[in-house]
Specification:
Blueprint lengths: L2 H29 L3 E3 L3 E7 L5 E8 L9 E6 L2 E6 L5 E5 L7 E4 L2 E5 L3 H4 L8 E7 L2 H5 L3
C-alpha cells in the first residue's frame, strides 16, 4: 500500500471518529435541554418549587389554555396521568424523581428514555412544565 493511500485512510478514520464524537456530544446535550420541540407540541421544562410535584400548563399556539386534556407523566415504573382544568393547568404528585415521557391524550410529545440514568429531567425539587400544542388535530383525534 502506498503512503498516499495509507494517509488517505488515516484521514478518513480521523474524520469518522470526530463525526461520531460530535454526534454523541449533540445527543448528550439534547438529554439535558430544558426545551423540546416536536411536530405536535413544544415542551418547556423548569425547576419547580414543590418537591416531587409536577405543575403543567397546556396551551395552544396562540396561548389559549386547553381544558380537559389528559397529560400523562411517565417514568420507568409507570405513568401519572391528570386532566387539565379550565385554565389548562394540572398538578401531579409523583413517587419517583425521573421523567421519561410526557403524553398528551396518549400521544408522546417528549421522550427522554435515559432520564433515570442521567438524572434529568428530575422531579426531585419539583418541575414546572409548559406544553404548547401546535397540532390540535393530532391531539384531539379519537381512535
Amino acid at each position: 500500500m502506498s503512503t498516499k493511500v495509507y494517509k488517505f485512510f488515516i484521514y478518513i478514520i480521523i474524520i469518522l471518529f470526530f463525526a461520531a464524537l460530535y454526534r454523541g456530544y449533540v445527543w448528550y446535550k439534547m438529554q439535558f435541554a430544558d426545551y423540546e420541540s416536536g411536530p405536535i407540541a413544544d415542551v418547556y421544562l423548569e425547576i419547580g418549587n414543590s418537591p416531587m410535584n409536577i405543575s403543567c400548563r397546556v396551551v395552544d399556539i396562540k396561548g389559549k389554555p386547553l381544558s380537559s386534556v389528559v397529560v400523562d407523566f411517565r417514568n420507568n415504573s409507570g405513568g401519572n396521568p391528570g386532566i387539565t382544568n379550565e385554565a389548562g393547568l394540572v398538578q401531579i404528585a409523583v413517587g419517583e424523581k425521573d421523567l421519561e415521557q410526557i403524553l398528551v391524550n396518549n400521544i408522546v410529545i417528549m421522550n427522554r428514555p435515559y432520564s433515570y440514568e442521567l438524572g434529568y429531567p428530575s422531579v426531585e425539587r419539583g418541575l414546572q412544565v409548559k406544553i404548547v400544542i401546535k397540532d390540535l388535530k393530532a391531539v384531539t383525534q379519537q381512535d
